[in-house]
Amino acid sequence: MNGSSIIGLPSVLSVGRTRRRRRIRPHQIAISIFLVMAALFFCVPIYVILVTSFKSMNEVRLGDIFALPQRWTFASWKYAWFAACSGMRCDGVSGGFFNSLFILLPSLVLSISLSMLTGYAMALWDVKWANGLLFVLFVCAVVPFQIIMYPLIKITGFFGIYGTTFGVAVVHAILALPILTLIFRNFFRSIPGELTAAAMIDSGSFWRIFFEIVLPMSGNILIVVLILQITSVWNDFIVGLTFGGHDAQPMTVILNNLALSDTGENNYSVDMAAALLTAAPPLIIYFVLGKFFVQGITAGALKG
Predict the structure, then answer these.
(1) Average pLDDT over residues 208-222
(2) How confident is the model at residue 51 (pLDDT cuts 50, 70, 90)?
(3) What range defines the domain where residue 56 resides?
(4) I need a labelling partner for 298 at 20 to 30 A (CA). Which of 20, 76, 83, 149 fits?
C-alpha cells in the first residue's frame, strides 16, 4: 500500500507541474502591453519633472530632458520652499502649503461628518420625502460649480468668511456634500435592516445606533471618502482662487503664480520642485491607504 503510493507520487507531482504551466494567451499579452504603455504615459512626465528639479539651469538649457543630472543639487527645492516669488511675495510655496492644510482639515471634518449623518439617516431610517431629497442631491452633484459660484460668494460674504481659509474649507464642504451623501447612503444600504431593527427594539436611539453599530462598520468607506476628498481639496485651484484672499491662497494658486511669472527668467528646475512639493501629500496618502481604498470599493462603497 505504502509502496504503491510512493510509486505514484512522481506522476502526481508531474500532473501538478503541468497544471501550473499556464499558457500565455494573446489577449493577456495585449492587456500587459496596454498597461505598460499606460504606466509609461503617466510615469515619464513624472520622471522628467523629478530629474529636472535636481538640475541647475545650465543643465536644463542643454535641452536633454531625459538625462540624469550631471551634478545633483537640492538648491531648487530649497529655493522653491523658502524663497520663490509669487506676485509681490518671495517667501516660497511654504505659505501656500500650510494654507492648503488649514483648508483641508476643516473641510474633511465638515464634509465627512455631515454627509455621513445624512447618508445614514436616508439609508436606515424612515425619512419623509427621502426619495425627493435623493433626487435633489443627485441634481446638485452634477450642477457645474460656475453656476452656483456667485451665490456662494454672497453667502460667504454675508457670514464674514469670504477671503479666509475657513471660508474656502466651508465652500469645499458644501460642494462635496451631495456626492458624499450619495456614496454613504449607498454603502449603508448594504447593512442588514434586521441589525438596526434589533438595535431599535433594544432601545437604541439614533445616535447610539450610529456610534455603536454603524460607525465601527464604516472603516472601508471612510478610507474611500477620505482619499477622494483629500485629492479633490488639495488639488483644487478655482475655489481657492475665487474664495481665498491674498493671505489665504492654497498651494495650487501659489504654484500657478510662480510658474506664470511675467518678469525675469523662468527657473524651470524651481518650478518642477514646487510642482512636486504640491503633489507630494495626496500621493503619499494614496500610497499609504491605497490598499484600503481598493478594499472599500470592492466592499460596496460605490455600489448603487
Answers:
(1) 86
(2) very high
(3) 2-80
(4) 20
d(CA 173, CA 233): 9
State the pTM of this model: 0.81
> pLDDT averaged over the chain?
83
Are the CB atoms for 224 and 296 separated by under 8 Å? yes
Do 149 and 243 share a structural domain? yes
For 75, the grid coordinates are 538648491
**Domain-embedded: residue 187:** yes
Note whether 65 and 6 are same-domain residues: yes
Q: What is the CATH number of the domain that holds 214?
A: 1.10.3720.10
Q: Which residue has the cell 504654484?
A: 255
Nearest Cα to 83, choosing from 69, 95, 73? 95
Say if residues 104 and 288 touch (Cβ distance below 8 Å): no
Q: Is residue 103 assigned to a domain?
A: yes
Element (DSSP H or E) covering residue 79 = helix 75-82
- Which are the contacts of 66, defined by CB distance < 8 A and separation ≥ 6? 47, 48, 51
If asked whether residues 179 and 141 sit together in one domain, one would say yes
Local confidence band at 110 (pLDDT 50, 70, 90 cut-offs): very high
CA-wise closest residue to 176 among 116, 252, 238: 116
Whether 157 and 232 map to the same domain: the answer is yes
Element holding 232 (H helix, E strand): helix 219-234
pLDDT, tens digit (0-9, with 9 covering 90-100), for 77-94 = 999 999 888 777 778 888
> Are residues 184 and 115 in contact, defined by beta-carbon separation less than 8 angstroms?
yes
Comparing CA positions, the residue from 139, 124, 255 lying closest to residue 197 is 124
Kindly state the average pLDDT of the residues 108-135: 85
